[in-house]
Specification:
Layout lengths: L13 H7 L2 H42 L5 H7 L6 H19 L6 H21 L2 H33 L4 H56 L16 H8 L1
Helix pairs in contact: 1-7, 2-6, 2-7, 3-4, 4-5, 4-7, 5-7, 6-7
């Protein structure tokens, strides 16, 4: 013999929450949803930009330095928005400008370094654009959800005082609103904070790659050769004084 349990509507469900929500609660919910959508848009677009720059760096390592000159290397890199093609162009343009205008006032070493630094700074500014949305959402959305929590508790206390009957049916809706708004605020904040830290770490990696590439371009323009980090280190001759002290 089996007993069939009666189906009971859940007063704490999302649909019940939407039905029982007032104007302020719905406004808070809309704000949190918009903040979440903005965060995911920033995360996805920034990841796409970072991925494209990383591919450009791999291409530059394979094609740019395998060419015979800087011009051939720039022509080997595809895409107008190639960051490393832009760095090479800015370095070569700065060298050409220095040859005709700044021969006596500024050294070639300083002028090329300043030009490449400005180029890298412009790319870094583009990479961090929109990151403030993630930081602001991660710090503000829990408090926005807390506002909904406080408002829901206030509604619960108001219903209890007006009805004089502190039953579950009278306070289930407002308490459910309070709990759901807190959960939504945390749901919005956690991906924003994690996405911010993740993108920031990837930005630092990309900036290091740009610094290495710019240093190679700098040394090539100024000294005529790229700095080879794989070259073996020659064993320096021991100074005469050090050798004498060791044998004494």
């Amino acid at each position: 013999m089996t007993n069939d349990a009666a189906t009971v509507d859940n007063p704490f469900g999302v649909m019940q929450f939407i039905k029982q929500a007032d104007e302020l609660t719905m406004s808070i919910l809309v704000i949190l949803v918009l903040m979440s959508l903005a965060c995911w848009f920033v995360i996805l677009t920034k990841f796409w930009d970072q991925r494209r720059i990383e591919k450009s760096y791999t291409e530059a390592q394979k094609k740019f330095w395998g060419a015979g000159s800087l011009l051939d290397g720039m022509n080997a890199l595809t895409g107008r928005d190639n960051v490393f093609r832009m760095l090479a162009e800015d370095g070569l343009r700065a060298a050409q400008y220095h040859k005709g205008h700044l021969t006596e006032q500024v050294t070639l070493h300083d002028w090329i370094g300043a030009s490449l630094y400005r180029s890298m700074d412009s790319v870094a500014t583009r990479l961090v654009a929109g990151m403030a949305i993630l930081a602001t959402t991660g710090s503000v959305s829990p408090f926005v959800g807390l506002l909904g929590t406080v408002w829901g508790i206030l509604n619960a206390l108001t219903r209890i005082s007006l009805t004089g009957n502190p039953s579950l049916e009278q306070i289930a809706g407002p308490i459910g609103e309070a709990l759901i708004m807190t959960a939504i605020g945390l749901f919005v904040a956690v991906p924003a904070v994690m996405g911010y830290n993740w993108l920031l770490r990837r930005n630092k990696t990309i900036q290091e790659k740009m610094k290495h590439f710019s240093a190679d371009v700098h040394s090539y323009i100024v000294g005529g050769a790229r700095f080879d980090i794989t070259a073996p280190v020659a064993r320096a001759a021991m100074p005469r004084q050090a050798a004498t002290a060791k044998t004494a």
